[in-house]
Amino acid sequence: xxxxxxxxxxxxxxxxxxxxxxxxxxxxxxxxxxxxxxxxxxxxxxxxxxxxxxxxxxxxxxxxxxxxxxxxxxxxxxxxxxxxxxxxxxxxxxxxxxxxxxxxxxxxxxxxxxxxxxxxxxxxxxxx
Length: 128
Description:
Blueprint (H helix, E strand, L loop, with lengths): L1 H30 L3 H22 L3 H28 L4 H24 L2 H8 L3
């Protein structure tokens, strides 16, 4: 009889722990985004704007495409800021998605900036 009780208690403990783990993970997912994180996104938007502006003189078409993406990301950062303020929490995944897309945009803008070589452009056009 006592062994049966120990089994039941152990089983109840395992079930309780397995049910509590997803709730704890979800709470942690929400609690980690802070206003400072949103400020870093806003700073990144500003820096991306500078990167796109520098790209305009080298590849206006690509800069225009990136500017449209940047405008959308700027709106999303504002949305996240308001959501955090209103709801008091924000899923880390939403923050990370916008952060990653901003990093990708900045990478695209700077790779166009650093890979452009006036001598290469001159050499390719001189073969006419």
